[in-house]
């Protein structure tokens, strides 16, 4: 016998069906609209409730009935001379029937997410077509390479430790590759959405997300080619270097969440110092503008393999230094690995701290040391590739940030 509790999924099914039906009604969908969608969703819920007593064949029969109604409806429209090559409404009807059934058989939150997602997906048709139109062969290649990295390579790697010091785990090493490539790809996608004419702030933020070192190289060269953009180039380089610390804190929170409470404050102070310096340069350059340089595809397989090798090498080097060279050896590894890349040393240290193989206070000091080494490398890059004016501005600002890092290491 039915109870009040049986009405809850029916009410939710009705609401979700009305939501999707309203969207279809506004698009003048001929097959189904404001009335049909709630009826189909409620039918799914009723079939699932009946299936509790009579078996799952009831849900299957209901699904086939909805499919048959779709066929009959389309045949009638074709005979009337109405031909619609799209199948969106038909697919939405079948999904919403499934959502109605899932309200009984599964989790209500999942059904709400799927039902709401269907409505949003249908509503964003123009925007999605616009994004699809912007995706060229190169961008689609980036997406497919990310699929290769995440869904093909990662699942087949062994999840066990090998080699000396038991720090090399192929699955975990490649998982860090997936994490880094995912963050960089997110920046690359944002770059493609904003376009090359994005403002200086977007250039710095996206540059930091994709590669702060590559951004420094690009804008250092630009300052030499176009001296009047020196102020803008200084801001973008400093902004990208500031975003690096956001990236570092995100990586720590994802790989060793409990460690963020210890590493976050000192690294956060360093971030705040760079943010202030970036704000100072912004006040002098906010009226300047220039197109962003072309960004490289961050999901190429070769760089991913190189990063995996670098990350594994840093893991092993830290373990060797800890075992045989003491504190001095650890800081040497941090300085060398931080010169061109902060991701590998951050992930390595976070993993070792998380596994109890490295003291927490030593961990963040090594990461900060690597970050200071990275600032020195960027200053050298500016000196070699940029003009004197850029070196004077960026060098002074990087020097100030380096001094803050020294103070943190000495006084924290």
> Any low-confidence stretches, pLDDT <50, length ≥5?
none
Sheet-strand content, in percent, reads: under 5%
Shape: elongated
**How many whole angstroms does the radius of gyration measure?**
28 Å
DSSP summary, beta strand count: 0
What is the H/E string? HHHHHHHHHHHHHHHH
* Terminus-to-terminus distance: 68 Å
The number of helical segments is 16
**Structural category:** mainly alpha
> Sheet with the most strands?
none
How helical, in percent, are the residues? Answer: over 70%
Mean pLDDT: 78
Quaternary structure type: single chain
Overview of the structural elements:
- By secondary structure, this protein is mainly α.
- The protein is built from 16 helices and no strands.
- The protein is elongated and about 75 Å long.
- 39% of the residues are buried.
Brief overview:
With 412 residues, the protein is mostly helical. The protein is 80% helix and 0% strand.
Topology of this protein?
Blueprint: H1 7-26, H2 36-54, H3 57-79, H4 88-105, H5 108-123, H6 125-134, H7 137-156, H8 170-194, H9 200-210, H10 212-225, H11 230-255, H12 260-285, H13 301-338, H14 343-354, H15 360-385, H16 388-411
Write a concise keyword list for the protein shown above.
412 residues, mainly alpha, 80% helix, 0% strand, elongated
């Amino acid at each position: 016998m039915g109870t009040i509790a049986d009405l809850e999924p029916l009410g939710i099914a009705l609401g979700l069906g009305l939501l999707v039906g309203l969207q279809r009604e506004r698009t003048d969908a001929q097959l189904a609209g404001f009335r049909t969608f709630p009826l189909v969703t409620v039918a799914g819920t009723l079939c699932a409730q009946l299936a509790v007593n009579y078996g799952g064949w009831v849900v299957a029969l209901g699904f086939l009935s909805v499919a048959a109604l779709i066929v009959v409806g389309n045949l009638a429209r074709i005979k009337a001379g109405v031909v619609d090559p799209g199948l969106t409404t038909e697919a939405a009807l079948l999904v919403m029937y499934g959502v109605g059934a899932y309200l009984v058989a599964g989790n209500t939150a999942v059904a709400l997410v799927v039902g709401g997602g269907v409505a949003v997906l249908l509503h964003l048709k123009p925007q999605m077509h616009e994004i699809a139109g912007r995706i060229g062969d190169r961008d689609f290649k980036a997406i497919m390479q990310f699929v290769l990295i995440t869904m093909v390579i990662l699942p087949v790697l062994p999840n066990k430790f090998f080699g000396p010091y038991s720090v090399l785990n192929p699955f975990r090493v490649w998982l860090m590759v997936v994490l880094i490539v995912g963050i960089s790809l997110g920046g690359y996608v944002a770059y493609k959405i904003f376009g090359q004419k994005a403002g200086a702030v977007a250039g710095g933020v996206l540059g930091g997300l994709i590669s702060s070192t590559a951004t420094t190289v690009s804008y250092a060269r630009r300052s030499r080619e176009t001296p009047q953009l020196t102020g803008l180039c200084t801001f973008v380089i400093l902004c990208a270097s500031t975003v690096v610390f956001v990236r570092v804190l995100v990586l720590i929170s994802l790989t060793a969440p409990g460690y963020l409470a210890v590493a976050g404050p000192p690294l956060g102070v360093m971030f705040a110092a760079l943010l202030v310096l970036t704000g100072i340069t912004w006040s002098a350059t906010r009226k300047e503008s220039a197109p962003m340089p072309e960004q490289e595809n961050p999901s190429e397989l070769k760089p991913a393999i190189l990063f995996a090798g670098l990350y594994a090498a840093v893991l092993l080097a830290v373990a060797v230094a800890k075992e045989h060279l003491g504190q001095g050896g650890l800081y040497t590894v941090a300085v060398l690995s931080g010169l061109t890349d902060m991701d590998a040393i951050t992930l390595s240290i976070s993993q070792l701290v998380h596994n109890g193989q490295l003291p927490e206070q030593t961990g963040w000091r090594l990461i900060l040391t690597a970050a200071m080494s990275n600032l020195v490398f960027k200053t050298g890059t500016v000196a070699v590739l940029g003009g004197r004016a850029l070196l004077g501005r960026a060098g002074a600002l990087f020097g100030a940030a380096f001094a803050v890092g020294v103070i943190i290491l000495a006084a924290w």
